[in-house]
Every structure is written in structure tokens, then in C-alpha cells.
Amino acid sequence: IKIFLIFEEFVLLGFGIGQHNRLLLLVFFTFLYVLTLAENITIIILVFLDIHLAQLPMYHFLRNFSLLEICYVTSTMPRMLFDLTSLQGIISFQACFLQFYIFYFLGSTEAFFLSAMALDRYLAICHPLYYPTVMSSRNCSKLVAGCWMVGFLAYAVPITLISRLSFCGSNVLDHFLCDQGLLTLACPPLGNAPLILFSMNIFIILGNLIFVTISYGVIIVILIKSSNQSSRKKAFSTISIHIMVVTLFYGSVAGLYVAPSGKTQSHTVKIVTIFYTVVSPFLNPMIYCLRNDQVKEALDRVLRRTEQWLRKR
Length: 313
Description:
Distance between the termini: 67 Å
Helix content: over 70%
Number of strands: 3
Low-confidence stretches: 1-6
Largest sheet: 3 strands, mixed
Number of helices: 13
Structural class: mainly alpha
Radius of gyration: 22 Å
Strand order of the largest sheet: 2-1-3
Order of helices and strands: HEHHHHEHHHHEHHHH
């Protein structure tokens, strides 16, 4: 009976703090979650309503990136908020592995999206004559669909293998979500599941990071050699926004998932996980919009049209 109960459910320890601090975190994370949803939904609606932004490939990627961020933060935050209201933190085996899969699927999709956006900026700045043809609306849609599809399939094999392992020891996971830490609860032999998972982490995280680094590196070299001061300044302003988002994502993810599992202390893992699952999705829309004149102009146009419509009504 004991083995059956452990197999059927896991216990997430969460943050291991007192009731008062749990309430403070609950209020803070709820506020952050609502703001994150509002920011990303605003970007999606803005790109959809403004015809000028809708015609630009970069904002086609940004609209899908905002949708991805909504899904990404929703894959972890509601469960985390629920556990802050409960002292048990019990999650079923099926729900745990569903969160595990969705979390990795969306995380890998974000890595591919960042590479697609880096490719878009490379073509726009380094090959402006070919850019309209290569980054046509149809090709953009194919690239976006490819990012979603590859992200969806990338971790299907390792997570399926992990879900078939036996969990016969402790069912307590010192985390607030289900991720690769589940391997520490599995009974030997683990087979090839840890190696395949680690290999996919290396391939997806480091592979995309190298691609993004090379793309922006070439862009910076081209811009330094450019004699047009105004266009160079504008281009630097645009790619600096992208580089900030890339740094936020890979700065927290790379060290955590490329390192072999079990090498990092649990409190450090929790802090880093909070950063890229909660803080980063909140900051990304602000980074893209606050320093972006095109977004500000589009927002002004949409607000003026809305005001005119309201007056007519």
C-alpha cells in the first residue's frame, strides 16, 4: 500500500517558510502573475489591431512570443499559488508529469523563438535587400510553426522514459514545481533517461545560445563598420532590447539545466527557477515596449482610434 501511494502522488515542499511569509508571497506572486498576463495580452492585441505592426515580421514573432510567455507562466504560477494556500503541496503522478512536460516544452520553444528573432534581426540588418523576400509573411508563419512543433516534440522521449521509472523511495520533492528533480526520487536502474534528458538540455540550450550569440555578434561587427550613424544607432537600440531578453533567459537557465542534476543546492534552484518562470516573463514585455518607439506609436494610434470610436458611440 505504501508503494502504491508514493507512486500515485508526490509532495512539493515549496518554499519552506512560515504562514505569514506564505501569505506575503501569495499576494506578491498573484500581483505579478496578473500584471504579466495583462502586459503580454496587451502586446498581442496591439499587434493584432495595428496594421503597421502586423506587417512587420519582428512583431509577428513578438506576438507569438507573448502568447508563449502567457502559456509559460501559466504552466507554473497557478499551481504555485495554490500550494501557497495549502500546507500539503500534494500533486498527483499524472499532474506532476503533465506539468513537467509542458514546462519543458514551453521552455525549449522559447529558446527556439529567441533564435528565430535573432535570425530575423540578422537578415534585417546584414541582408536588407533579401529580407522582405526571405522573411515574407508565409515564411514567418512557417518559422513560428516550426518553433512550436520542435519545442513540443523535443522532450517527448526523455520525459516519457522518466515517467516509466519506478518511484519507491521518498515521494517528497524539495521544489515548488515538477522538473528534472524527479530523477532524485526514482529507483535504480534509471537506464538512459538521465543521459537523454541531459543531452537534450545541452543540445537545445547551448545550441540555441551559440546560434544567438553568433547572430548578434555578426550584427554588432556589421554595425560597427557601418558609416551611417543614424541607422547604426537605431539598429543598436533594437538589438540591445533583444540581447537583454536573451541574457535574462539564458543567464538563469543555462547554469541550472546544463549542469548535471543534483549539483545545485535546492534553495539556489528555487531562486533561479523563480527568476526565469516568474520575473523574466514579467520583465520581457516591459523591455520590448518601453524602449521601442514603434510600439509606443502603435499604442498611440490604437488609443486615438478607440477614443474616436467611443465618441461616435
